[in-house]
Amino acid sequence: MTGGTRDGITCDVAVIGAGTAGLAAWDAATREGARAALIERGPGGTTCARVGCMPSKLLIAAARAAHDARGAGLFGIDVPQVGVDGRAVMRRLRAERDRFVASIRDGLGRVPEDLRVAGEARFTGPATLLVDGRVEVRANAVVIATGSSPSLPPSLAAIAGRVLTTDTLFESEDLPDSLAVLGAGPVGIEIAQAMTRLGVRVTVFDPAQSIGGATDPAVAASAEAIIGREVDLRLRTEVTQAAPDGEGIRLHWRSGGETGSAAFAQVLAAAGRPPNLADLDLGRAGLDLDEAGRPEIHPHSLQCGPAPLFIAGDANRLRPVLHEASRQGRIAGRNAARFPRVEAPAPWPAFALVFTDPEMAAVGRAFDPEAARDWLIGEVSFADQGRARVMGRNAGLARIYAEPEGRLIGAEMVGPGVEHLAHLLAAAIQEGWTARHLLERPYYHPTLEEGLTTALGAIAAREAAPGPPRVSSPRGIR
C-alpha cells in the first residue's frame, strides 16, 4: 500500500484498518455508493490469518497427526515410533500461514490507489484524521477497525523482551523443550495441548476456575479432566514473578496458600488482546472515554454515542471472532455510508469454539446459576456415545439450555465434533426453535449429531411442565 505525497483526501467514509472488519466495512460503504478511503499502518492481513486462527490451527493439525499416530494401537495398527521434526512443523505452518495472508493482501487490490493511505491515523476532529503527520483525511463518518494486540501480565514485565506472544510464537524456527503458557483461555489452551502433543513439556497457569472460557461448572469440570490428562494445568494459580534463568525463564507462582517455581525454555503470554485504540487520539474526536480510554459503543449499531464514528471487529471487544468481525464490518460500513440514518440489526447468537481435542463450544446464553433455576437443561455424555466410541474419542459432555416452554437459548459442550453440533444449535437458537422442533429434524445413524437427540429429548419431555426444572441424567446413544 502506498501513501504518495498527497496533502489530503476528502471522502464520505474513512476506514482505519485493513483486516477482516476493515475490508468488510470498506466493501459495504462502497456498495452504498460512498466514496470510501482505507487507511492501514500494517502489517497487512487479518489477526486471524497472521497470528490467530490459521497458524494455531496449523499447529493443532500437526499435533493431531502425531497424537493419532501414537494412539493407533487402539485400532490394531502398529506405529513403532513417532518422531516430531519441530523445524519442519514450523516451516509448514509459516508457509501455509503466508498463503492465507497473501490472499487477504491480494484483496486490497480492489481499493483504488487514490483512496489508499499507508500510515498511522490520529483524529484531529470528529471525522478528520492526520496520517503520519502528512496526509489529512476528511470524511463524513469514520469506521475504526484497528484490531487488537497481545498484552503482558505485570508479573512478566521484568522479562518482557524474552516473552513470546501470539504475534511472535509462530515465527519460532523450532519447538522449545519446555513452555509455560500464561492464560488458559481458548488460544492458550489450544496452543498448550498442541505443543504437548508435539513433545514439548507444557505447564499452563491461570487464576481462573476453568479452561477455554467455560462457564457451565459441569462442562468446565469435564474439560479440565480431559485436557488435564495431557497438559499440566495450574488453574486457580497466579504467576507472581519472572526472572531470567540462563537461556530460559524462571517463574514463581502462588496457588491458595502454596507457592512454587520452575524454569522453562520459553514463556507464552496468552492472557488477552486489548483493542488498538490508544494511539488514535479518540479524545480529539469529541468522544467521552472511560478510564481505559475506550468510548461507549452501541452493541448493535456499533456507533460511538451520537458521533459519526463506528468501531468494528476486535477493536470493540464485543465478540472478537472472525465471523462477527466480518458482519460488524458490514454493519459499520453501511451505517457510516448512510449516516445519520443508522440501523441497529439484532445480533447473531453468541458462538465460540475452542479447537482442543476434544473441542469445546458455547452457543447462545452463557450458563448463569441463578437464571438456570428456571431453565430446562438436557445433557448427553460422549463417554458411551456410539460414533464417539467407534472413533476412540468417547469423552466429553454437552448441556443444552431452554426456556420452560422449550425454546432453545444456549448450550455449552466439550466433546468430539462439537464444532458441527454447535452450528446446528446456533441456527436453531437464531430461528427461535424449541427443543421439540429441533428434535424432529432427521439425524443419520451413526453420527455424533445423534447425541443431540438425547439432550433435546430430555428437554422436550418436560416442556412447559409444572414445578422446578430437573436436569436430565447424562447418557449416550449406542
TrEMBL record:
* Cofactors: FAD
Name the keywords, alphabetized. FAD, Flavoprotein
**Residue span, Pyridine nucleotide-disulphide oxidoreductase dimerisation domain:** 352-455
- Gene3D superfamilies membership: 3.30.390.30, FAD/NAD(P)-binding domain
Q: Which Pfam families match?
A: Pyr_redox_2 (PF07992), Pyr_redox_dim (PF02852)
Give the coiled coil ranges: none
Q: Which residues form the FAD/NAD(P)-binding domain?
A: 12-329
Concerning its family, UniProt says: Belongs to the class-I pyridine nucleotide-disulfide oxidoreductase family.
Matching NCBIfam families:
PRK06292.1-1
Which PANTHER family does the protein's record reference? MERCURIC REDUCTASE (PTHR43014), PYRIDINE NUCLEOTIDE-DISULFIDE OXIDOREDUCTASE RCLA-RELATED (PTHR43014:SF4)
What protein is this chain from?
A: Dihydrolipoyl dehydrogenase
